[in-house]
Amino acid sequence: MFRQQGGIRLKAVFVGAGSMAEAIIAGALKSGALQADHTYVTNKANDARLRQLAEEFGVQAGYEAGAALQDADIIVLAMKPKDAEAGLESIRSFIHEKSVVISLLAGVSIDFMEETIGKPCAIIRSMPNTSAAVGKSATAIALNQFVTDKQHKSALHLFSAIGTAITVDEAQMDAVTAVSGSGPAYFYYIAEAIQQAGEELGLDHETAKELLIQTLLGAASMLSKNDGQAAALRKAITSPGGTTEAALRTFDEFRVKQAIAAGVKEAAVQSKRLGDAYIH
Ligand SMILES: NC(=O)C1=CN([C@@H]2O[C@H](COP(=O)(O)OP(=O)(O)OC[C@H]3O[C@@H](n4cnc5c(N)ncnc54)[C@H](O)[C@@H]3O)[C@@H](O)[C@H]2O)C=CC1
Ligand SMILES: O=C(O)[C@@H]1CCC=N1
């Protein structure tokens, strides 16, 4: 287990203290994947934010991260991709053969990280999503050649604390980013349209909202229970000549399905474009 590797509790340092770092810290402490007294958080310049995390979670936080980094089994990179180079340079001298760098950074390749660190080092590139804040992220991870089985298991355990976690080849990360990284936003977009239509049809804001949220939760549970059989579930609701058929016919006229698929593919293209900026 993550907590006990050879009887030693793993030490983690989060470099970056934004919403993603907070979601992972919250989930990992709750599940026991990490312990507060073995978790250190640092950021670029917001001392109040560090104090807030220290108070809320009991973690160590500050700008004297050297000793914690030196000692760390896990270094989580949690800054924005534009700050990747500075972040990697700040940890480079503390990395040793037993540490693993876990990156949350969208689009930043393992190659880029290896070259910036400049020495053999275990690196795990991940793509969580914002549902991590409620323990429901769908996270994918990709490993470099130096990651040991133990480190791989530890990373899966860590990300399981904020939802589900799977391992993919790094080549699939653009597709993963398009599907599950950006994915929550697509459902919010559809939710906005339904909310608006409900209100235009005469429902008050609260009523439309409650019906919408429960409908989304129910549909997600049904999809999960029925092994992702979206088409079969849709057909089961669509009576001939009925209301659902009328709605779907209208969606088809607007080519909504094709539009969504094209958008998801464009997200993958953009992920690759952003990644290309992080090639030496
Ligand atoms: N928001 C999302 O949907 C997803 C975000 N991600 C990734 O998670 C990462 C973090 O995102 P957020 O938490 O939303 O960011 P954020 O902007 O809330 O937080 C970034 C943190 O990094 C710190 N920072 C910046 N440069 C630093 C440096 N050189 N050294 C130490 N700390 C530094 C900042 O002070 C701040 O605490 C991003 O790289 C993003 O690509 C990944 C999947 C989904
Ligand atoms: O939109 C973005 O670039 C990031 C990556 C995945 C979710 N948000």
TrEMBL record:
<dbReference type="InterPro" id="IPR029036">
    <property type="entry name" value="P5CR_dimer"/>
</dbReference>
<dbReference type="Pfam" id="PF03807">
    <property type="entry name" value="F420_oxidored"/>
</dbReference>
<keyword id="KW-0641">Proline biosynthesis</keyword>
<dbReference type="GO" id="GO:0005737">
    <property type="term" value="C:cytoplasm"/>
</dbReference>
<keyword id="KW-0560">Oxidoreductase</keyword>
<keyword id="KW-0521">NADP</keyword>
<dbReference type="InterPro" id="IPR008927">
    <property type="entry name" value="6-PGluconate_DH-like_C_sf"/>
</dbReference>
<dbReference type="InterPro" id="IPR036291">
    <property type="entry name" value="NAD(P)-bd_dom_sf"/>
</dbReference>
<protein>
    <recommendedName>
        <fullName>Pyrroline-5-carboxylate reductase</fullName>
        <ecNumber>1.5.1.2</ecNumber>
    </recommendedName>
</protein>
<dbReference type="GO" id="GO:0004735">
    <property type="term" value="F:pyrroline-5-carboxylate reductase activity"/>
</dbReference>
<feature type="domain" description="Pyrroline-5-carboxylate reductase dimerisation">
    <location>
        <begin position="170"/>
        <end position="273"/>
    </location>
</feature>
<keyword id="KW-0963">Cytoplasm</keyword>
<dbReference type="Pfam" id="PF14748">
    <property type="entry name" value="P5CR_dimer"/>
</dbReference>
<dbReference type="InterPro" id="IPR000304">
    <property type="entry name" value="Pyrroline-COOH_reductase"/>
</dbReference>
<keyword id="KW-0028">Amino-acid biosynthesis</keyword>
<dbReference type="InterPro" id="IPR028939">
    <property type="entry name" value="P5C_Rdtase_cat_N"/>
</dbReference>
<feature type="domain" description="Pyrroline-5-carboxylate reductase catalytic N-terminal">
    <location>
        <begin position="13"/>
        <end position="107"/>
    </location>
</feature>
<dbReference type="InterPro" id="IPR053790">
    <property type="entry name" value="P5CR-like_CS"/>
</dbReference>
<comment type="similarity">
    <text>Belongs to the pyrroline-5-carboxylate reductase family.</text>
</comment>
<feature type="binding site">
    <location>
        <begin position="78"/>
        <end position="81"/>
    </location>
    <ligand>
        <name>NADP(+)</name>
    </ligand>
</feature>
<comment type="function">
    <text>Catalyzes the reduction of 1-pyrroline-5-carboxylate (PCA) to L-proline.</text>
</comment>
<comment type="pathway">
    <text>Amino-acid biosynthesis; L-proline biosynthesis; L-proline from L-glutamate 5-semialdehyde: step 1/1.</text>
</comment>
<dbReference type="GO" id="GO:0055129">
    <property type="term" value="P:L-proline biosynthetic process"/>
</dbReference>
